[in-house]
Design goal:
Elements: E1 2-6, E2 12-16, E3 28-35, H1 39-45, E4 62-69, E5 81-84, H2 94-97, E6 125-128, H3 131-134, E7 135-137, H4 144-148, H5 153-163, E8 172-176, H6 180-191, E9 196-201, H7 204-213, E10 217-220, H8 227-234, E11 241-246, H9 251-259, E12 261-269, H10 281-284, E13 290-292, H11 301-309, E14 319-324, H12 328-336, H13 338-341, E15 345-349
Parallel strand pairs: 8-9, 8-11, 9-10, 11-12, 12-13, 14-15
Antiparallel strand pairs: 1-2, 3-4, 3-6, 3-15, 4-5, 5-7
């Protein structure tokens, strides 16, 4: 089969590799219909994730059809059309039983293994461990493109942004950074009943798009205004937003999220940080803040699937560009230059 193989920092190739097979009795093999590219894949290509070794097939998202199952699979069967969860979970360890599947101990304490510790989904076929837990049936009426957005970005924005941020009906929510995951937080915060969802970014295209995802207000950080002051002006009493969702992963955006939240509010960090941030505890110990971090557990995909079927959320809005498998290099070029290309998510499909 063909797959996108990592060959070290800055090097990748769409090339022939051996077909995957069932290894463990809980495995399944899936013939990929659609996949996509995540910001994490770009970090890997820069050499930022040393656990990814040369020869690894990249990718952790997608939809496909089951072609083979191991003898211990009791739920999935050959012919099932499925969403592949980005998080692998045994379902029986302490962390899985508590719902924190991102730290499944059976797979080594980290549930993100596709395209990281094992071969991933940017391929014609993929082996899926613990398939009964990691494959979600794709119902009739939900497209493969919609389903692909449920592998990672929608659960990430919803779980780590909206749920960890305890967004409730009537809240004023700021989303700092409206790339794909930030837009997922915008979309699901709006569906959760927030009275205002304020999109904060420096990219005019993303700010414009955020309105279609449910943002009620936008703030351009490059406009020269005091962003914290503007966020407080948009809060219900000038004290700050109820929930601030950080979806970038740099010190400046974490500080902005922290500075704009009201006493008793929530700061939900979704962004992937590569350097330390400052937390002025001498100022904020008194403010009764809740600050959360997290790696997606992807346990909410079935709930989000129901919301898609009911028309509450429309994940197809994320998709701005489409490519076939043999155009995967062009897909990476587009996604790597998302600002210039006005790209949110790219879909890569069988021809």
């Amino acid at each position: 089969m063909k797959a996108l193989v990592y060959h070290g920092p800055g090097q990748k190739a769409w090339e022939d590799v051996p077909d995957p097979t069932v290894i463990d009795p809980t495995d399944a093999v899936v013939r990929m219909e659609t996949t996509t590219i995540c910001g994490t894949d770009l970090h890997i290509l820069k050499g930022d994730v040393p656990a990814v070794i040369a020869g690894r097939v990249l990718g952790h998202e997608g939809v496909g059809v089951v072609t083979e199952v191991g003898p211990d699979c009791s739920k999935v069967k050959v012919g099932d059309r499925v969403i592949i969860s980005c998080v692998t979970k045994c379902g029986t360890c302490e962390y899985c039983r508590s719902g924190m599947t991102s730290h499944c101990q059976t797979v080594g304490g980290i549930g993100w293994i596709f395209g990281h510790l094992i071969d991933g989904t940017q391929a014609e076929y993929v082996r899926v461990p613990f398939a009964d837990n990691g494959l979600i049936p794709l119902p009739d009426g939900v497209s493969a493109e919609q389903g692909t957005m449920l592998s990672d970005i929608l659960p990430t924005g919803f779980e780590i942004g909206v749920l960890y941020g305890a967004v409730k009906k009537g809240d004023v929510v700021a989303v700092v950074g409206v790339g794909p995951v930030g837009l997922a937080a915008v979309m699901t915060a709006s569906a959760q009943g927030a009275s205002k969802v304020i999109a904060v970014d420096g990219n005019k295209f993303r700010l414009e798009q955020s309105r279609d995802f449910g943002a009620t207000d936008t703030i351009d950080v490059n406009a020269g205004d005091d962003v914290v002051a503007k966020l407080k002006e948009l809060s219900r009493d000038g004290l700050g937003v109820d929930v601030s969702i950080e979806a970038v992963g740099i010190p400046a955006t974490f500080t902005l999220a922290l500075d704009s939240v009201r006493p008793g509010g929530h700061v939900a960090n979704v962004g992937v940080h590569g350097e330390s941030v400052e937390f002025p505890i001498e100022r904020d110990w008194i403010n009764n803040l809740t600050i959360t971090t997290g790696l997606v557990n992807a346990t909410t995909a079935p709930e989000l699937l129901e919301r898609i079927q009911q028309g509450e959320i429309q994940p197809e809005k994320f998709i701005t560009h489409r490519f076939t498998f043999d155009e995967i290099d062009a897909a990476y070029e587009t996604f790597s230059n998302a600002a210039d290309e006005h790209a949110l998510k790219v879909i890569i499909s069988r021809a």
